[in-house]
Amino acid sequence: MVTFPYFLIDPTLRYCAVSEALAVGGLVYAAVWVTYPLSGAQINPIITLAFGLTRRICFFFVPVYWIAQFLGAGFAMSIAYYISPFVKLSPDMGMTMPRSGITAFQALWLECLITFLLLVVILAGTDEARETVWTMGSGSTLACVYMLMYLVTTIVTKNLTGASMNPFRSIVAAILRVRFEHQWIYAVGPLVGCLIAVVFNEVVLTEDACWIRTKAWLTDMHYFRNHSYSLSGRPSKASTQAAEEVRRFSTHTKAHKA
């Protein structure tokens, strides 16, 4: 669904980047709102990889999500491609390509940077170690964060690299257009950005960050994200919140039975 607009927005529009950003941002908001309670809003293979690497989801499910994401992107973009009146306007229509004056190296690091920024915000917004008010909140907060990051990164880099941040989005467009030059950029750039964002989040950003937690994350098969690995021995805020919720539920249940 999120990839649907890429072949349907007139590339000759003066503010094409803004139009595409608004369309994609709105669909991202809707997708996160609808699917987060069901599947964790796995709308991008790079986000899924980051969730697997940070042990938020079992790595067994990563290829399952990837298959669904690739098929979904292929289905949506194929429909848009065959009904779009704009595909004949440009051989690059709908594709992610380095724009005129942008070298492959520059495009690679721009994709790496915007993917890093996107994932830092998303990983922070879904971190169980943070207080709820700073994470998913009521659900709408997280959807807004997703949408705003897609809006900003697309507006800034659409006319530079195409603002992919999603290898499947780029691969499907390349298959439909039968043009594969420079597509390695949109696999390598987001992957590198993902790896940097994962390490930065786990080692620096997460509330309970310490070398004991990092070691457990990398080596312990039974690593548990909500467990406090703090050197101080104090429970994390997430652990405290979980205990408080259990206490409230228990109190409510007893009162109801009485």
From TrEMBL:
<keyword id="KW-0813">Transport</keyword>
<dbReference type="InterPro" id="IPR000425">
    <property type="entry name" value="MIP"/>
</dbReference>
<feature type="transmembrane region" description="Helical">
    <location>
        <begin position="57"/>
        <end position="83"/>
    </location>
</feature>
<keyword id="KW-0472">Membrane</keyword>
<feature type="transmembrane region" description="Helical">
    <location>
        <begin position="184"/>
        <end position="205"/>
    </location>
</feature>
<keyword id="KW-1133">Transmembrane helix</keyword>
<feature type="transmembrane region" description="Helical">
    <location>
        <begin position="133"/>
        <end position="156"/>
    </location>
</feature>
<dbReference type="Pfam" id="PF00230">
    <property type="entry name" value="MIP"/>
</dbReference>
<dbReference type="InterPro" id="IPR034294">
    <property type="entry name" value="Aquaporin_transptr"/>
</dbReference>
<comment type="similarity">
    <text>Belongs to the MIP/aquaporin (TC 1.A.8) family.</text>
</comment>
<dbReference type="GO" id="GO:0015250">
    <property type="term" value="F:water channel activity"/>
</dbReference>
<protein>
    <submittedName>
        <fullName>Aquaporin 4</fullName>
    </submittedName>
</protein>
<dbReference type="GO" id="GO:0005886">
    <property type="term" value="C:plasma membrane"/>
</dbReference>
<keyword id="KW-0812">Transmembrane</keyword>
<dbReference type="InterPro" id="IPR023271">
    <property type="entry name" value="Aquaporin-like"/>
</dbReference>
<feature type="transmembrane region" description="Helical">
    <location>
        <begin position="103"/>
        <end position="126"/>
    </location>
</feature>
